[in-house]
Amino acid sequence: MQPFVVIKFGGTSVSGLPQWESIATVIRSRLDEGVKPVVVHSAIRGVTDRLQAIADDETPDAEAALAEIADLHRALAVELGLGPTPDLDAELERLARAVRARHDATGPSAARTAEILACGERLTSAVGVPWLQAQGFDVTRVDATELLHSRPRAQAGATALDRERDYLSALCDSEADEAVRARLAEAGEVVVTQGFTARHPDGSTVVLGRGGSDTAAAYLAGKLDARRLEVWSDVPGMFTADPRRIPSARLIHRLDYAEAQEITTTGSRVLHPRCIPALRSRRIPIHLHSTLHPHLRGTEVLPATERGHAHLKAISRKDDVVLITMETLGMWQEVGFLARAFQVVAEAGLSIDLVSTSETSVTASLDASANLLDSALLAEVVDRLSAFCRVEVIASCSAISLVGRNVRGLLHRLGPALEIFEEHRIHMVSLASSDLNLTFVVDEEQADRVVERLHAILLIEAARTEPDGPFGPPWTRIRAGILEPEEQRERWWHRRRDELIAIAAEKGGAFVYDLDTVASQMRKLLAVEPVSRVMYAMKANAHPDILRTVRATGGGFECVSPGEIERLEEVFDDLRADEIIFTPNFAPRADYAFALDRGIPLTLDALHPLQQWPDLFAGREVLLRVDPGWGSGHHEKVVTGGRHSKFGIPHFEIDEARALVERIGARVIGLHTHSGSGILDPDHWTRVGERLAELAEAFPEVRIVNVGGGFGVPDREGLPPLPLEALGDGLTELRARHPHLELWVEPGRFVVSEAGVLLGRITQIKGKKGLRYVGLTVGMNSLIRPALYGAYHQIVNLTRLGEPPEGPVQVVGPICESGDRLGTDRPFPESREGDVVLIANAGAYGRVMSSEYNLRAPAEEVVLGA
Ligand SMILES: *Cc1c(COP(=O)(O)O)cnc(C)c1O
């Protein structure tokens, strides 16, 4: 049977043509994946609220409210370009009947309310399904009441409240259900059904309560034993904190079920907490996505991997918390005190969230929003408790929870974040016995500050120090729309998968290069208007075919050693000296002489050559590499005065350099700075250029400003590429301010990183659940970047591309060194010995840094044919 994927679309995702177009795109790509999409959708945003108001007789004129709902759906039908809509007319008629019948005395009134509420989703189906059919999909509309059957709470002895909830907040089973699977297998290629709705054993329609579309989709995914559940809404997933309050909050790409459950129950509303148990036992992954950023990788909820150390994922916050402290003398001697106290709370229909106890007191928190707590009810509870203990109530509190595995391990780092509590009280601290959440209850007015500080101290740090960690881009970037469809952008290696598999089968392991990508990256930089020259930093990858491709596009070369110059001479027999710029660092005198003999322009990055070897440079043109002393700001002299870095002439030696040059009779024709790598901030080079242009005022002969390399490429899925237009705009303004200066750049990584992949084959697999290792034929002797810099490389099982991940694995090589690890905690499909694994972005600083360590030959290089 074809595997099912259940895809849920929320209220904002079904309300207009652009949204339905996104739905069609998602359906299309799932069909391409070879799975059967089962679409579960909500009512159009706002409709359920209106239906609720009608059912509760809270609208002055039910007929007028109905007409409004009808108009809303007819307008959608017009927007979608539909002609007559008989299904919609029939559903509107059914709704009108249910509304007229709301005061009838037949059956429970909750059932009549449910019948009205359930109409919202049906109305949406009635418009959406014909539109999808018009797009050419073979769609079967299945009523959710045929698929989901509710399970009434305690049959005997159920309270009136329970019976009402059986209609308005019904529970269903999510056990695999062969009948439902068979029913949908026979349906058309796409199934559409409504969320929120199910059938009561008495035959009436019930609804699943607020957030019930998520739960319906989860139940259905369970029944279908689906490959995964996708939840599409207007947010891309779960964040490290509430992004509306903490804009630097980062998207979390991966969570395990327990962590996700903790986050949903401690504040986030992205996913209904009831969804998770339905899927957890059968290890069905949940993927969260945003219809506003459909290509952004959202949050994946997967089975856990056991890891020892503390792993904070998020800080969540719940407001409107009320604390009740009950104090009695010698409490532990008083048998049944807790039971008595809790009985009072339960009888008031309230539920307790957190509890902490000491010998003489118990503090319990009540979540007011969930508890429908009002002051009269609270007064009554206090009154009854006061009969046997002293009671203190603290209202308007916030519960702030640190969520993640082994949060206990973070305790020692909390100090600085909690400093503000020298003046303000922490009312309660509670560490869950699962060690998944550590909660502080504080006054609501302190909560913003506490969350902000905890987030800054714990999470921003975690995201920075864990390049392999689960964190995605910050909300500020997502909101600004700087995220391009990076992740699902088709990579060349998707297209050429078969060739790659054949290469790996033959060679065992190989670096494979795609020259079209090299050429297109070069052209992107050459197209940045104000840039006059693009000098490829060939230390990133010196393969002859890559050098030829770079030159064919019009690029020059930046070399750092005589060996690189010789490589160019081997590859090209007509290369001119001015196609090269030589930038050695701490190199011997002979290296400078080597370049000068050939007339190759060079960049000096220290005073030593000028001081000690003046004869070499007499009458020559040189560039000076300067260390602009970043980060020094206003206190430049104080902070960095006298500090040398390995690279560049520090700004406090510039005057001395100028004097030396004049004395020797050399001419400074350019200034240069290369400061860092993998930079994705488009303003960086403009800042560098502006600084160099300022310094250039002291050098009348300077005509070149070389702003170096460092142009980043997104190394992880979902990160946006460097916005070259913004870069161009900044440089254009720079150029306008300094029209006499030429701008040069020296990209390395940008040109070749994405053009290369490293292929390996699986050698061995170790471990089952928890810590699993997947061994490859290639390791750190081929690609040392993960071990050397903690660099992140996307890793995929090419043989099983698109198969669902089983759980995180550690990807390791065959080198006897514990640092021989290419990826940590990567989602990976079930794999076998011999599978071909691809490590992306391996074109830069890959093979050039490889070694024979362990006397194992590194992967060899293969260039793909056109
Ligand atoms: C390495 C290097 C570059 C290229 O750096 P990327 O980060 O690969 O762009 C440019 N200029 C100099 C002087 C370098 O040493």
Automatic annotation (TrEMBL):
Pathway: Amino-acid biosynthesis; L-threonine biosynthesis; L-threonine from L-aspartate: step 1/5; Amino-acid biosynthesis; L-methionine biosynthesis via de novo pathway; L-homoserine from L-aspartate: step 1/3; Amino-acid biosynthesis; L-lysine biosynthesis via DAP pathway; (S)-tetrahydrodipicolinate from L-aspartate: step 1/4. Its EC number is 2.7.2.4. The keyword Electron transport does not apply. The keyword Zinc does not apply. It comes from the Bacteria. InterPro entries: AceGlu_kinase-like_sf, ACT-like_dom_sf, ACT_dom, Ala_racemase/Decarboxylase_C, Asp/Glu/Uridylate_kinase, Asp_kinase, Aspartate_kinase_CS, DAP_dec_asp_kin. Its cofactor is pyridoxal 5'-phosphate. Keywords: Amino-acid biosynthesis, ATP-binding, Decarboxylase, Kinase, Lyase, Nucleotide-binding, Pyridoxal phosphate, Transferase. PROSITE patterns: ACT (PS51671), ASPARTOKINASE (PS00324), ODR_DC_2_1 (PS00878), ODR_DC_2_2 (PS00879). GO terms for molecular function: aspartate kinase activity; diaminopimelate decarboxylase activity. It comes from Gaopeijia maritima. This is aspartate kinase. Residues 326-399 form the ACT domain. Pfam families: AA_kinase (PF00696), Orn_Arg_deC_N (PF02784).
